[in-house]
Fold this sequence. Notes:
This protein is mainly beta. The protein has helices spanning about 10-15, 330-345, and strands spanning about 20-25, 35-40, 50-55, 60-65, 75-80, 85, 95-100, 105-110, 120-125, 130, 140-145, 150-155, 170-175, 185, 195-200, 205-210, 220, 225-230, 235-240, 250, 265-270, 275-280, 290-295.
Amino acid sequence: MTRTVLTKSMAKSLLATVAIIAAALHVGACSRPAAATTFLQFTTDTTYTETDPTPSPDGQWLAFTTERGGSRQVWIRPIGGGNARQLSHEPDSSRAMTPTWTPDGKSLLFISTRTKQYNVYRVPFEGGEAVSLSNAEGSNRFATYSPDGSKIVFTSNRLRPGELWGFNIYMMDAAGEKAGEREAKQITDHQGSPGHPVWAPDGKWVAFVAKAVDTTKTVEVGPGMTAKQNAMFSVYRLFKVPAEGGELTQLTGVNATAKEQSEEVWPNWSPDGKWIAVQGRAGPTSGSTRWRRARSFRSRPSGTARSRPGPTTARPSGSRATPASGRRSGRRRNSRSRRLRQQRHPLPRHPRPRRSRPRNR
């Protein structure tokens, strides 16, 4: 199996700057994650910043945000070619962002700042007036429908409005929240400000990223300065939680040291629910990105004791594979560990110079 690594320039053009890139994906027959095979530049006018590309459930349309009309709005256009059409019409002083589709493709969710705070709105695919779905104090962001279209998960800092790291994940009815009738339910209570929630294909789990905070750790915060770890001095890791709430399970970075700066953002489930693709960053301020995959069924809840790995147990993406125990030389053990990592995470590597070994006499 091959893997495509996005360079810094490719990642920027895909996610944040010049144009929207549409990737043709192929999913293998043996429950393997999708692998990007062909890249097609979908828009060519670099005058505008266009981001948040999201294909429709039937693969016929692409929703995205653009400034081509003046202010940032949600637009859609046929993937097979054709004219783009503006879908949201937020006031010029506000921004629309992060569109997601209903499972039937008949409407879209997006986030707008029309009330000077972030809130969730729904707009019909054919166009029309956007309807507000969230109304609590604070910011409400990153909304997405459940696979059956009956629920919406989103992030909110309503209990700690104004706090940068005060977000948690909530679930509301597809019709929106209404005080006293349809209250949104909090499904995480985490110090790491969870974000980017996505539903598992079977609707039983929600994956998300959050700062992996461990207040028992002491971290270096500057030359000669240390502090107890908090959200500011942590990095984003991949988690999952039962859709109805419950214990969190950390899926990546479980054994990372306090100095480990690589992190994961923007998770996405494989169609069979066995893998989660994440965008891996070399560090919180780094522009270097690459796509990784992680198993979605790690059995140990976050914060519990680590079970002893069996022979040749592979760790989550970005960490080492554990070789089988036994009386082996250090060279043979390290060699086997490298082979396991290459099989588990087949990233392109620069060739290493061969070491000459003395011949046995």
